[in-house]
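User: For my dataset I need records formatted as: sequence, then structure tokens, nothing else. Please produce one.
Assistant:
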Amino acid sequence: MKEILLSGSVAILLSFSLTPIFIRFLLARGYGQNIRDDGPTTHHVKRGTPTMGGVILIVAAVTGYFTSHLINGVRISTSALLVIGLVIGLGCIGLLDDWLKIVKQRSLGLRAREKLVGQILVAGGFAYAGLHFRDSFKLTPISFHLSTVRDTSLVLGTVFVIIWVVFLVLGTSNGVNLTDGLDGLASGTSIMTLLAFVLIGVWEFRQSCGAVGGEVLISKCYQVRDPLDLAVLAAAFAGSCAGFLWWNTSPARIFMGDVGSLALGGALAGLAITLRIEMLLAVLGGLFLIITMSVIIQVSYFKISGGKRVFRMAPLQHHFEQLGWAEVTIVIRFWIIAGLSVAAGLGLFYAQWVTS
């Protein structure tokens, strides 16, 4: 378990110490955020704030993970490498998007279709690779079964698994991207969800089918490949987010940008898929789901009604800004919702073990 503490500690220290250096680097080159004219008017004061802070998030988390293995001499798992590959792939798409925004001096970078195609290719590659690399127990990093709080008896074919994984990755990465609209909102919420993955990974490791004995326990055990190492990776990302949050909280000195939000969404989706709790992600990341649904509802109703709106502005956090709520008030209250969602998700996970 010391790998979990070490990876998280290294990640938080690196993120905390490297972020201000990166801020100075970005400011010296004038790499600041462009603010959309159709967004909240209160955000115009944020124009010029350094962006692309997600680069530090990724570097700190990945370094923390590998450092813990190097010091302790622990084997690096295939599952964690696949999740890291997914994170870096999505981060590169976000980095290109952020870079184009800076170069073109406007709030839009990649076209929506270009970004979507890139995400599909990265997620599809992750899904395909995850269905291979069997271990000694013939377990693959990604299951062929649909999972809720654990694998169900419903078996999906290779094609349907890939489609399902792509859907989860796209939904989660774009959900975090939509949530990243207020200082500290996405990073703070991600910490809570990532810590839940740490607890779930440790629990699955303790109750893995290769580690338990007895007829009752075997009937309840988890067939998950590399759960403990995935917990180490989740701790690294949680630590990285915590160190970054110090500088990202209101008033933010740096934004994570699309490179950070897409990568974080990829980490959350990748961890949920490899820990085989895919459907539980909707509860653990409840705030991301709520904010995503607010955009879907707004756009759908706008088209159906011929121009009418449900919310004053979408995503949902901007609706409350338009109602006059202070940014810090919105962030803290949304963190409370995120915390309750994580508690509900962990409760469902444990309840299945107790009642089965």
